[in-house]
Amino acid sequence: MIRGLLILLLLGLVGCGTPEPEWNGAGADAVVTVRAWVDRADVVPGKAFWLTVEVDQAVDATFELPDPGANIQGLTILEVESPAPEQAGNRLLVRQRLRLKAPVAGTFLIPGVEGTWRRGDDVGTAGSGPILITAQRTPSAADGTDDALRDLKPVAPPDANPAPLIAGGIGLLVLLALVAGGVFAWRRRAVPEPTPPTAWEVALGAVASLERSGLLTATDQGPAAYEVSAILRRYVEARFGVRAWRMTTGEVLRALPREIASQIKLEQAVREVLEASDRVKFAREPMSPAEMAGWLASIRMLVGATTPRPEAP
To answer: What digits encode the pLDDT tens for the residues 183-203?
Structure first.
């Protein structure tokens, strides 16, 4: 009995949505602090809610936030947002928001995330705890039943023979099914299904979109550096299967596939883009628009060199 009460208490405490913590960006003693919370306590199956993961770190520290959605099971990820980092004094605030949905009623565990930070010669880890989500349907008036008594009616006369009507209805249903099947087959043959974009098409499209966004010439260069690093990491992960999105820059360079590592020009391009974007993101080192445009040119060169060529007939 005591064990059951403890389980109920745990569900009640962990399953509730926690309010967003206040952040003043100064006075924190920890090098890196990671927090996570959901925006609502009454999670309803089929209704979206937000999970926010926040990293509060010293400006001179380096920390790579692992992908919060990598190990989420049972919940559907609808959208991912990565707002621009905020700085207050010697503190930097980085947030990532995931729009989730519980497809069915039940209890779901959102795992915590943990990463390694480095500041000078000091190395440590920081992470957030897990969050237990209980999704349940709210009572509705539509779920009730009408138990009121109704007046009795006299016995109705027997119906006529329904066999002809039933046979006619079945024939009509068969005819409609045949027509619908023919229309469906014709539409599938006439309109081919679109093929999903390739990894290199996605990367080149993201580079072109970043050039048009105006972030390369913005005063705050942090969002542009973050997006450049993300484009390169997503391409390496989608093209070669390296989990670059969850790795630090050093880990990505050590895990580069032979197709990149064996070519000095390609390996140097990846290294320069990741290390330079880290200096902008974490050390706030200023870069000229021409240097940042050079990062995009390096990504285009990498994509062009690693795009599969069609085989000659």
So the answer is: 787 777 666 667 889 988 998
